[in-house]
Each structure stands twice: as C-alpha cells, then as structure tokens.
Amino acid sequence: MSKVLPEAPPGLCFHCLQPLPDEGGYQVVIADQQRPVCCYGCQAVAETIAQQNLLHFYQYRDTSNPLAIPLVPEELQQLSAYDDEQLQQQFTRTHDDQSRSMTLSVEGMTCSACAWLIEQHLARIAGVVQAQVNATTERVHITWVPAQVKLSTLLQAIAQLGYRALPFQSATQEQDFKRKRRYFINRLGVAGLATMQVMMIAVALYFGVLSEFDENLKQFMWWISLLFATPVLLYSAQPFYLSALRSIQAQRPNMDVPVSIALLGAYGASAYATITHQGEVYFESVAMFTFFLLVGRYLELLAKQKALSAAANLIKLLPAVADREGADGEIETVPVSQLHPGDVIRVLSGHTLPADGTLLDGTALVNESVLTGESRPVQKHRGETMLAGSINQQQTARLQVTAIQQDTVLASIIALQDLALSRKPKLAQVAERLANQFVVQVLIMAALTFLIWTWIDPAEAFWVTLAVLVATCPCALALAAPTAVTGAIHKLNKSGVLLRNADVLQVLQQVKTVFVDKTGTLTSGEFKLQQSYVAPCSPYASDQLHAITQALEHYSEHPLAQPLRQLTTTKCQVSQVETITGAGLQGIWQNQSVRLGSLAFIQQWHPEYQPHLPQAQVFLASVAGVWAEYQVGDQLRSDAQIGVARLQQAGFKVVMLTGDRLELAQPIAQQLGITEVQANCLPADKLAYVSEAQQQHPVMMIGDGINDGPVLAQADISVTFGHAADLARTAADVVLMRNQFSAVLSFVDIAAKSRTILRQNIIWALVYNVGILPVAMFGLVTPYIAAIGMSVSSLIVLLNSLRLYR
C-alpha cells in the first residue's frame, strides 16, 4: 500500500517547492504517482529518496511556505560540517558560561520585516540565548549553547524561512558586495535602457507629436512600450516583489508592498488598455518608478559598504601565517589558525602582529592606529600585551601568544561594531514602527481614494490611486534611521570609539550628570611606589613584609597593584587569597590572616588606626596590628583638564566618584575644576549615588576598574577604556580604544551630530509623506511625477546621512 504524501502547491516543484519552468519541467514517480519537478537535480534526488525508502522526508515536511530555500542532502551535509569543533574555533567566541556567539551573513534579507521574522524564529529554538538581526548589514549576531542545539540546526532553521545563512567571513565581504552591486547594476541597466525608450514614446504621445498619424501607429507605439516595460516588471522589479512577499509572511507589511501593488497595477492597467485599445497607458511610470527605486537601493548599498568596509579591512590586515618557535628554537612558518595560546612567535620589524601576545624580551615600538585611531607609536616593555593588527616598528619582537583569531581584541572590535549595528536606538525603532504603520495607512488611504474617485471620475480613479501609492511610499522614512546610525558608528570607529549599544546616541541628549572615577580614568593609571612605611612594632623585617605584600598583589588586577609586585626578590607563599571588591585582598600567611587594601578595609580590624603617611593608599595588616603602609603615585592624564572643562561647558555636571580617601581625591578635583567629590566609595556606595541621580534624569558613568563594573552596568550610558578590566569592558556601552580622556569628547560630539541628522531625516520624511498625501489624493500628481518625488525624498535622506562620513 502506497503512502499518502502531501502535494506541492500548484505550479511548484514537488521536491524543492520552487516554481516550475514554463515548459512544465520533468516527472518523477514517488509513491506510485507521477510528480512534477523542475530540473534533473531534483529528479535525481527525489528518485534516491524513494529508492532508499525515505519518503517521510516528504510526508512530514511543511509545504505551506514555498519561499523556503530547499536543502538537498548535499547541502544538509555541508551545513553539518559547521558542527566541527576545530572549524567553529575560526569564527566563534566561547564565553565563560560555555555559550558561544558568532555573526552570520544572511542572503535574501531586504528589510526590517525580514529581520523581525528571523529574530522571532530563532528566539523560539531551545538553546538560543540571544539572536539580534540587523537588516542594514544583513547579519545575524547569535549566542547559543552548543550542548542544547547544534549550529547546523540554526542554519537550517533560517533556511526554512527562505534565507541562506553562513558564518560571516570578513575576507569574503568584498566579494559579497561585488555580487550585490552586480545584482543591482544588471537590473538598473535593464530598467534604465527601457525607461529611455519608453519615455521617448511617452513624450511623443503626450505632446502630440504623433497626433497627425492614424490610430494604428499610436497602438503600435503602445505595443512597443509594452515590450520594453515587460522585462522591467519581470526582472528589474524582482527584489521588490520578494521583499513584499516576505514582509507579508512576517505579518509586518513593509514599503515594498505598496510599491509592488503600484507596479503590478500600473502595468496591468496599461497592458489591458493596449490589448483592448481603450483608456491610457503608463508604461513610462512603471519603468521610471522601478529605475528610481533601484537607484535608491543601489546608493543605499554603497552607503552600507562605506560604513562596513573600514572595519572589515581590519581583519584583512592580519597576516595569514606566523613564524613560530619550535622546542629546539627553530623557526617554522605556520598558518595563524594553527597557533595556540602559549606558543612563542617572532614578528619582524615592519610586520603586522598575527595574534595577541605578551612581549618576552626587551622593548618594542608598535603602531596601534588600526585599533585606537592614534597614529603615534607606543612603547611596549617586557610583560606588556601587544595586540593583533599592530605594526612592529623596531627590532624583531618575541611574543607569547595569548589569543588568536576570534579571541583577539581586534576580533572583539568587529564583534562590538556588529552588536552596535544590530541594536537600534529608540528613535530608530520609532521611525521603523512609523514606516510599518504608514504602509498600512497608505493602503487604506489608497483604497479610500479609489472609492471616492470612482464616484467623481471613474476614468481617473485608478491613476489617482496609483499616484497615491507611489508618492506616499515611505522609503525615505525607512532609510532615515539605519543610514544615520550606520554612519555614526562608522565615524566613531574611525575616532577609536567603539559602541556596544547604539541606543546611547539618543539617550545622551537627556544626560545632565557625568560621574567620573579617579584612578585610571582622570589619572594615567601608571603608578610608581613613592614612599613606604614599616611599623616599628612589627615582628617582621621590612623585606619579609614587602614579600607578603608582593605575594598578595599578584592576585589583584587593580592598577595600584602593579608597582607593588616588584618590591623585593624575597619570595613567600600566601594561601586562600580572597578578593574583596572595592576593598582589597585577604589571605593566610604562616597560619594567620593578613589583609592588604584600603584604610577602611584595615580599620575593620583596627578602628582607631590612623596612617603615618598622609597620602598612603595601601595598607598591610594582620589581626594583631598594622604592619606597613605604601604611598603609590599617579599623574593626571594630560588631557583630563581640557576634557572635564569641555564637558562642563557642554552643560554636564561632573562628579568624581572614587574609592580613595577625600584628602587624596580633593586636590585632584580642585585641579580639574570639579566641585563635587564623593570619596571613600565602595562599589555599593557608587551604585547608590548613581541610582539616586537617575531618579531625576539619565546619567553617564566613566570608569575602568573592576570595582566600577556594577556602577557601569547601572548607568544609562557607561564609558570605559580599551585597557580597562574585563568586567568594566563587559558592562560598558562605549569603549575608548585610544586610552585618552579626550576621546569622550569625540563620542559626545559625534553622537550629537548623528542625533541631529537622524532627527532631520525623520522630520523630512514625515513632512514629505504627510504633505504629498493630500496633493496626490486630489489628483494633482501624475504617477511618473510621484515616482520622481518619492525617489528624490529618499536620495535627500541618503545624502544627509553621508555627511557623517566626512
């Protein structure tokens, strides 16, 4: 008994659900019935499935979505290859919670409705932590748990929606853009040539050039126009139909819905008039409308490419091979993908570092402009970190690899940019919602226009309705936000400012107070031991106490710890070391508890203790008494005073939040012109101050230490530096790669400019669409004039956004 298999929708291939060729295609016998297939490939695969008794493939598949991209067994096998661990290391990042993240490049995504559909579909899959889709860059940033769901499953899920997704590779981005440019140029060429021919005929007809000739010649000209307009409708306008279908599938109609209706309606009515010899034809409107729309899409593509190519070129700068030292000291040249943390590599003078690493010998002079935007070379000393993408400018450098490929700082910069592009500011979300709502309203107004004009003048009803659909297409409104945000992120990246959350571009205008940490933020963070004090009553020699301090500080990432790790050559062992965030360290030495940290931390054991060094910041003590004090010096950043002054001039109230004592913080605050100082702050205290200020208005926090992590996460806008602790970088919305306080000013200035351009774009788009609607409804605009007006409004938005690239 043969199995009952669901039939494919009429006119579609039984196997791949794609349209059958005009001649009907081929036949294959499945379950004792002949089924139509589109090509030899589908025929062969279908026969194989039947021969292997795998008919459940057809029995349980979903035939309701003919837009889905078919996956034949060969393609399924290719997707399964992405589950290989070694392959995934080249394009995924592994997080502490064992989840992984990566960026996918998606083919076929055309608008925000596509992005919404993919995002919602992925979010429902068990094991997916987060999925953020950006229609502007056509990428998906996804985080998932490999133990719960395979990567190939996610790729197949996207394919089921009608899109093809593969791991994003920066090296192939240029090829992708060339392919997309060719895609638009081919369609533009057809539309442009047809428009010129059809317009010549239309002008002759409109201005009476052919009035002296008989009616047969006029009909002949209409047929010629039909001949030229047909490839425009069927080939050049194809991207608009696909986009409209997908938006309807997502139940979020986009601007291509009225565009498609207008094109098909104008062509259909004109073709009917040509065949029946009644009415008027508007083939020139079909060709011109398509041509202008394609010009707008093509310019939008170029704008995207300009914004994204700068970051993509960073990865291309990395060498493909590296010189690795073997166990016997011999040098071997290996692919960068074969490097592992702990390997020792050599980088010749003038060459680019292929991986992040620690300098093993002497000093090195490197150019980090590709990462920070700062062109001046930076001096590196033994033990300091050197980053992939930097250029070694002196003698050969020996490095111990700490991170390769997707784990490098350079790769994280690209990831941060993708993350920022996928997070739309609230104003951009509002514009997107307005555009989607406007589409529905345009369709309603077009229907009303048709009904009213049917009563006023039935002969003009269709063409007035067509003009309404064309003129009010919200293309400019849909472009207003993505182009401005993309331009702002591009401009910030060139200035060495990385944005993790694009929403801060809009929030910044509401910020009134800027909280600033002192150590490592207003100061350089390059500490040196200036003075030490050993209590006379201490039962141990100073060298022994310095050894205890040194041993404890090796467990700390605080900037003050660096100069206290090299106090003596004497070694000692401490155990059970515990980090008390915002206070210090506690451990066991020779069976007794010892503490190293701030005065307040020590005073928990010795409440009455007062320091002998007035400006000491670090204290060593046991339960029995305080043993030593250390005064570590730090200098103000050279640009801190100008930066604080500029922030105050811009209307921000600057408040210093520091864990240091007031007598240490006050002189620096006075030097910088900061009138409000909150000293002796634990992380909880900083959090309380910021939370209290947030009751009045949004606030910005600038900090770089581990103890700043919670308050950075709390603030409406959080800013840190590229050298900051991992916790601070994870919590921050903005990362200043230049390691200069003045980079905050670049962020403020560019954010203000992008916000202005974004607002201008939205206002212009709304004014145009609202203003043109009554004009079109009164029948004062012809379809081809409406096409020109709609296209010009979109071009104005694009050109205004391009000002951010200058």
From TrEMBL:
Signal peptide: none
TM spans (from-to): 188-208, 220-237, 257-275, 281-299, 434-456, 462-485, 762-778, 784-805
Location(s) in or outside the cell: Cell membrane
Keywords on record: ATP-binding, Cell membrane, Ion transport, Magnesium, Membrane, Metal-binding, Nucleotide-binding, Phosphoprotein, Translocase, Transmembrane, Transmembrane helix, Transport
One annotated GO biological process: copper ion homeostasis
Residue intervals of the HMA domain: 100-166
PROSITE patterns: ATPASE_E1_E2, HMA_2
Similarity remark: Belongs to the cation transport ATPase (P-type) (TC 3.A.3) family. Type IB subfamily.
Record-given protein name: Cu2+-exporting ATPase
Species the sequence originates in: Pseudidiomarina maritima
